[in-house]
Amino acid sequence: xxxxxxxxxxxxxxxxxxxxxxxxxxxxxxxxxxxxxxxxxxxxxxxxxxxxxxxxxxxxxxxxxxxxxxxxxxxxxxxxxxxxxxxxxxxxxxxxxxxxxxxxxxxxxxxxxxxxxxxxxxxxxxxxxxxxxxxxxxxxxxxxxxxxxxxxxxxxxxxxxxxxxxxxxxxxxxxxxxxxxxxxxxxxxxxxxxxxxxxxxxxxxxxxxxxxxxxxxxxxxxxxxxxxxxxxxxxxxxxxxxxxxxxxxxxxxxxxxxxxxxxxxxxxxxxxxxxxxxxxxxxxxxxxxxxxxxxxxxxxxxxxxxxx
Length: 308
Description:
Layout: H1 10-25, E1 28-35, E2 43-46, E3 52-53, H2 59-71, E4 80-83, E5 102-105, H3 106-115, H4 119-129, H5 131-140, H6 152-165, H7 171-176, E6 195-196, H8 198-209, H9 216-226, E7 244-252, E8 255-263, E9 269-277, H10 286-302
Antiparallel strand pairs: 1-2, 1-9, 3-6, 4-5, 7-8, 8-9
Helix pairs in contact: 1-10, 2-3, 2-4, 2-5, 2-9, 3-4
């Protein structure tokens, strides 16, 4: 459901900005933004209640579960895990591309999971924490439309298997098939995989930033780790130096997402979640990444962020 009020309201102007930005790059999109700790009037949405495939944005929930279990005395963040060649999960960065065995703390695995979206680190954490416990915590936090599906390895295997069934044995085959190859993929269907809504993702961020998902000490650590995200584009690029940003991207083929929180020097914070999907399976779409930046600017302007 798209939030829309009077033709001259800030939310109406925001909806128009989002529609024009998505149309420019030929993408579908779903968005929600809120002032952290603000009123219901300080929220903006575009398809904000729509079920979306989260891709790696779901890793924020894994980080939250780690520190809820730390608070409960179930895990120690300094506990060490061994990563071997048998643990490797496909991915372009982090442990996923390493060759030798490594020992690393759960806390450092979580940092790799959030900073470079390390799939291997994520699956090791999920094995230690339990997917069902993550989903139970999401339910307990009031996020009934948010859930994890399977670990990263199984998620990626499902995508490859489905593309293979469609006659694609290489990325060249995928690209040669054009936009139609991405249609109807069950492996990218939010009903089948990790899913949420834009509104629930910004709610999760608000709960983190107001110390309500775990103890204040653990929430501070969650925010610290989220601030380590390495990608400088998309939502981070929407603000100038001096504005703190912490968030999580999530991209796979036709999907490009990001959710994060901006904190301004005056202490005000704004949570934003942007989910997009384009026809086709191009690995690089800088125009869509720029569109996510532009939506971030539009949201901050509409919510009255300082300097916007």
